[in-house]
Amino acid sequence: MSTPLYNALVAKVRDWANRDAESLPDSIIQDALSYASETAYRELRVQGMESVYTFTATSNGNTFDIPDDLKEFISLRQISSSYSEYDQITNYIFTASASQTSFSGKDDNNVTLSYEEGAVLVILNGIFLAPADYTATDGLSIQLTTAASLNDELQVISIGSVVDTPSTNVFSYTSTSGQTSFSGVDNLGNSLKYKVNNILVTKNGVFLINGTDYTATDQSTVVLTVGAATNDLIEIVTVNELAQTTSGFSTTEDNTVVYDNKSDYRSFMSDDANQYSYYRWTRQADKIIVHPAFAKGDKFELYYYSDGSTLGTDYDVTAANFSLGYLTYSETATSEYLYFKSTVTTPDPVTDTASNLSSVTYNTIKYFDGNEKPHYLRDNQERLLLYIALSFINDYLGEDTQASKYETKSAQLIQRINNAEVFKQSSGGNVRMNFKSNLI
Q1: Which residues of 90-107 are buried (b: 16+ CB within 10 A; e: fewer)?
Q2: Residue 226 banded pLDDT, cuts 50, 70, 90
Q3: DSSP secondary structure, 6-36, as one string
Q4: C-alpha torsion sign, points 292, 249, 64, 142
Q5: What is the pTM of this model?
Q6: For residues 403 and 412, is the Cβ–Cβ distance under 8 A?
Q7: CB 3.0-4.6 Å disulfide test: which of 142, 208, 239, 244 passes with 213?
């Protein structure tokens, strides 16, 4: 730890202990401050030692990491829920292994398969499969009735909403030799119009891949990469938005779910009934496990007591922390650097955008340090840290009388802080003085 405020605190402890660096190394003082922070945590239950940790699921599951400074849980709640965005057609591509029947997880493009039941199309080697040829019910996997062969290409088209007749249109065109562009009035007298990324295109019944076999970007024209032959049948299926759709995202707290603690993560059995109980959570090693499982995009809020380990730590040198104003910089190579995207040779840390891209170079590079992270004890109860650390240090130095004195002082200060916190909570807010009447 080498942040300015923390270093100043180390120096103050040394000054109070009246010892030089030879008789009292910095490492002993730092250990003493860590001990002081831990002791203060155990003894205090005040608002400043409480922290909030939010977690947004990046995939479906039921476990997530706990924060590094967690000491004791207070509560866990789900503050919002979401479900996959289905506003456009999504095409998943899988290359099959020999005799493969089940397809799930990440596809060839590293996109995780997800779909709405009843709103999915499956294509094997360019040919649409009938519903009897596969099973698609769980929203996360496709099961083929007949196994695929090695290197077969399976495509899964997720439409997103249960499509009915009024929500789709089919445009049919009969091509001329070498024709690549299809637009305007089709064989049935209908003019092509579509929403970008919400169309399917087939040639003589074979599914074409968007971006590879054709492009469709202007909402009225489809352009083939390779020209069609005479009398090829080009069919374009457009998917229109429904009045009611399965896609959406909720960030409101109207349906906030509060989880009750449950120690047995193996079963999540209710304490008061021999049955599974919903909305339970527990801890297993460095993970939090919740029941039932959450979906990608669900957001949780963990309220907990911090162990005080952030005392003396600073913000990481990242582009995000730069943007938030948590970094200081200089032009001397004494700290970490960030590159900048800029049209000028020398980056301007005020107007340029910070980046970690090491391929971007300049004649002058800015070097950065992170500011010290705020810490309740150091900012508001520095004297308590000094008392506890000095009791530890004097015990180490064999100064029993001094150690006892500071131990007593720290105990008295802890009692006063707790009493003040209890009074503040019971009175409904901070204490204030009214000179025209009694203290309220």
Answers
A1: bbbebebeeebeebbeeb
A2: very high
A3: HHHHHHHHHHHHT--TTTS-HHHHHHHHHHH
A4: positive
A5: 0.46
A6: no
A7: 208
